Amino acid sequence: MVSFERFTMEDGSPIYQQIVLYLKREAVAGRVMDGDELPSRRVLSALLGVNPNTVQKSYRILEEEGLIQSHSGAKSYMVLSGQKLSRVTAELLESEAKAAVRTLKQMGISKEEAMALFSRYWE
Amino acid sequence: MVSFERFTMEDGSPIYQQIVLYLKREAVAGRVMDGDELPSRRVLSALLGVNPNTVQKSYRILEEEGLIQSHSGAKSYMVLSGQKLSRVTAELLESEAKAAVRTLKQMGISKEEAMALFSRYWE
DNA sequence: CTAACTGTATTATATGACTGATACGGATTG
DNA sequence: CAATCCGTATCAGTCATATAATACAGTTAG
Q1: Average pLDDT over chain B, rounded to an integer
Q2: Measured between alpha carbons, how far is B113 from B49 in angstroms, rounded to an integer?
Q3: B-side interface with A, Cβ within 8 Å?
Q4: Going from the N-terminus, what domains does chain B have, and what CATH number goes with each?
Q5: With CB atoms 3.0 to 4.6 Å apart as the test, which of B39, B57, B97, B121 could cross-link to B44 if both were Cys?
């Protein structure tokens, strides 16, 4: 069963996107694997304190990307081939790195300052 | 006169927030300085292709933070003491670093992998 | 002075995100 | 078989974002 223990709500971005990204990141980390059972829409919405429709939107998006399999009436499961995992990993890393680099460059931060910043905030 | 040459619209976050962040980053970079004249609400809205009310919202937020001074009927100017600049710099760097580190850690990326990733995407 | 520009304010409309309530049929379990 | 869970769908309402159209008073430049 996929765990949402590490999930924490941020404000700013839509909740359904946060859920989508959470599951993708957990998959990249290897904590969510192919065939893992997902909590039902109702159970997860109660756990996170959000509306079932919001969770449904997340699951629908993931199913459209082929990362979830849902049969009407039955439980939902993760579908994670090696190829899909590679695609998701590359997608997440690129978007994360590009956004950070772009922002810091606009602030006039040098590469050395940026590296030192990340190193410091890593712990 | 403050330039918006480097401004590019992203989708995802509100436009008024993008304008606020743009001006803060330009100030941190030193390209926007104390006393600099800002484009009027109408001129900037036409330049960016957005509604004047959206620009007004950005300027109002910046004024509430003390980074802009507006007199009814007259032009608006940046107000950037060294203290304010330090505060903004720290605020932007911390939020940027924290967000990136948090995301990459959830993906199970090691510190070394993360540093290599940033180094590669810096160009 | 006057025209043009400025900041500021108001009202209305539209869309996306989120919530709340409810309903239906399929799948599973006792 | 029947109860319960499941996925799926719909409708209504709220809130934030953004647009559009005005309006008015203060400032400034010709």
Answers
A1: 97
A2: 40
A3: 6, 12-13, 22, 25-26, 28-31, 89, 92-94, 96-101, 103-104, 106-109, 111, 114-115, 117-123
A4: 1-80 (1.10.10.10)
A5: B39
